[in-house]
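4.2 Preliminary Data

To establish feasibility before requesting continued support, the project team ran the inverse folding procedure on a target of 225 residues. The structure was first converted into the token representation described in Section 3, and no sequence information of any kind was made available to the design step. The complete token record follows.
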């Protein structure tokens, strides 16, 4: 739950502090992420200076003046407990201790890009999966041509004449076919005009029926004579 700044920087770069104890050793061994670990260390020190990370104990090097036996003034660097805001002191990365909670809070809030272990890749050769069965879906829908409908007065007269005259028509007896005058008179009684009745007659009766009536009329005329 507590570690030094160096150990925290190594962990953020995914370097095991038990394999590499210091940043200097990581550089000497030329590890793949040694530069990243040094960058994390500088970032942690800066966060301590700004109060973003509260250290358990902050150790730093300060210059201390003293005198030797001869009375000469000398300056030495000593490791002491310092305040994070004490700019004249160089914070020691190897001796300053921080907590895991404060480190993770800073990583989350500052969106620090840490190194994470790669996701395991499952090999299909080592763990073959059975082939999925192929399901053939047969469509039950029957395709049909589009259904178009249309209505008009003339078509209604044609349908009316077909129902009236062709219900009693016998193909073996041509005399059962309606005559032109019968069709025209019937349609006029249904409200059709003369031109509409003649047009329906031309459409309704095949040509052989029209000529058959003409032949029958000629035969009847000769017999009368």
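Position-by-position output of the design step:
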């Amino acid at each position: 739950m507590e570690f030094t700044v160096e150990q925290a920087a190594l962990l953020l770069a995914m370097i095991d502090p038990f394999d590499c104890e210091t940043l200097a050793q990581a550089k000497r061994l030329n590890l793949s992420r040694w530069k990243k670990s040094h960058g994390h260390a500088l970032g942690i020190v800066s966060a301590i200076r700004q109060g973003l990370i509260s250290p358990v104990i902050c150790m730093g090097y300060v210059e201390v003046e003293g005198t030797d036996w001869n009375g000469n003034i000398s300056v030495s660097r000593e490791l002491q407990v310092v305040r994070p805001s004490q700019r004249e002191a160089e914070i020691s990365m190897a001796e300053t201790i921080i907590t895991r909670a404060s480190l993770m809070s800073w990583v989350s809030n500052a969106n620090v890009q840490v190194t994470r272990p790669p996701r395991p890749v499952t090999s299909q050769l080592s763990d073959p999966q059975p082939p999925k069965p192929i399901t053939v879906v047969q469509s039950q829908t029957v395709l049909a041509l589009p259904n178009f409908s249309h209505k008009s007065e003339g078509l209604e007269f044609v349908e009316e004449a077909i129902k009236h005259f062709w219900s009693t028509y016998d193909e073996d007896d041509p005399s059962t076919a309606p005559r032109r005058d019968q069709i025209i008179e019937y349609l006029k009684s249904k409200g059709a005009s003369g031109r509409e009745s003649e047009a329906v007659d031309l459409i309704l009766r095949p040509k052989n029926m029209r000529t058959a009536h003409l032949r029958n009329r000629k035969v009847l005329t000769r017999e009368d004579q």
